[in-house]
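Hi P.,

Sorry for the delay on this. The queue was packed all week, but I finally got your sequence through. Input first:
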Amino acid sequence: MTDHPKPGMLIELSREIEWRTSTGVIDYPDALNFMEKRANDIHSGLAPETVWLLEHPPLYTAGTSADKKDLLSPDRFPVYETGRGGEYTYHGPGQRVAYVMLDLTKRGNDIRAYVHNLESWVISSLAHFGVTGERREGRVGIWVSNGIAEEEKIAAVGVRVRRWVTFHGIAVNVAPDLSHYDGIVPCGISDYGVTSLKKLAVSASLGNLDEILKKTFKDFF
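Then the structure:
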């Protein structure tokens, strides 16, 4: 039994992109089933390209490069195998997940450029909150200085492409329970921590981030 609010959905169409924004939390298998079907329908011309903004209940996902030793607490939360690239990551309330389903045949059939644009989208959006997000060679995701000497990860990026249609996407930490990351080695990187807008003393809601994500999306896609 769960006390999470029943999910609701707001659907908007902007420049032929369908934006879906869910309230409440969405179970991971339900999200995966939707992405699988929507990607097929986009490829077949039966549905528009889609960006889905949502939250998950606390869970871990394992990408195609996940190493079992990096799952430190296998019984803490549900663990889902997924076809996206990358290793273990955490999803949970207070984290904005954006699942991006685009047809790359309209964008040059370039997966590397697509991933770079996802990263740029996150970096640009964080800048609106006064946060400087950066790429780091050999470290997946978007990183920020914690104001002392180290860097911490604020956003994850993981994608899958089938028949040139993308799915999965990004996850930005707004105000999740960061202790939940203790059950994994996030993305196989143990030398650096994780952070959030809240930890950086930025007062922002998921809705605030959604507005900026929608505003900046057109600059990169």
